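Researcher: Please predict.
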Amino acid sequence: MADIGKDIERPLGQTVRAPRAAGKVSAGVIAASAVVLAVVGISAAIAFREKPFRKPQEVAISTPKVTAAAEPPASPPALAPAATPKIETPAKTGGPQIIHVQTVEGDGPPKAEIVIRDPSTVGQNLKIAHIPDKALIEASETGPLPMRSADGRRPFDVYARPWSGARGARVAIVIGGLAMSQTGTQAAIAKLPPEVTLAFAPQGNSIGRWMQAARQSGHEIVMQVPLEPFDYPNVNPGRNTLTVTASAEENLKSLHWALSRTTNYTGVMNYMGARFSADTAAMEPFMAELGKRGLAYIDDGSSARSLAPDLALKDGVPFVAGDMAIDAVQDRGAILKKLDSLEATARAKGTAVGIGSAFDLTVDTVSSWVAEAKKRGIEIVPISAVAIDPQKG
């Protein structure tokens, strides 16, 4: 009866469950416990990390490069400055040369490079052509005089414009009278192709400035020297003319005045001088001085009696003889005819030399002719490229 009362008091739909045996644990409880322990373990591991949820910083490990052991040198070699390559060239100017170049790259040891070149194809770097080489300058009362350097280099070599060195037909053209007219000089430097050689008159003005402009434009330059013509002084080349009646000392003084008017030229060219160039006593000291200073002599070819070829060979002076004056007649057709004759001579002999003056008509005609001649396979070269050099013979 008591049991029936208890049943009535229970909630509807619930039945009496059998009591669980003591000491037994269900499988669900065990699984739940395992999950709880796993979560707690993972949380603890994360909590104790130095930088949770971040990628650890990678540590760069450098491995030294192992090289074969070598005996240390007796004394450490001196390194050349990194910015300035060291170039060693032999003093000899004839024939092919071996040029040793040392450069420095980064922090490593210097690297050596050997280049074999023919000096006839090598000239001054045009980027620095307007800067005088101090080793080639002698200070004097009248101004800087050209001279051979202590290691034997000559202005003729150092200030030469580069050319190809090819054996094809070559034409050299020298335009003289530069610095006499400011507008004419400026036009000649600007219009004439850089392969055309320019000759400066010592009586001109601002020669140093014009020299720099000409060299920066790529031109090789020479200095004109006034020499006594026949019927002097009625025909007068200008002040400080070298004459046959003057002493050797007086003529050398006049020569030094002309040479000191500027720098960076390869040689000198006569201005007139038919009488002077035919006189042995006058020409010998003149040519010897050019040989001493490492300059070339360009004979304009106006006098068949000139002693210059033989004396130049004797004194070791590079020598060039002009084949013809191209503008004795100031007419475009006449000038073109002379230039075409130069081309024919070059094709027959290999080289030809034309001499002209800085007249506007000459400058314009030469400029247009050079452009056409190049298309026909003619190479226009600086005057130094056609010189007969006794030191290279």
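Model: The two ends are 151 Å apart (CA to CA).
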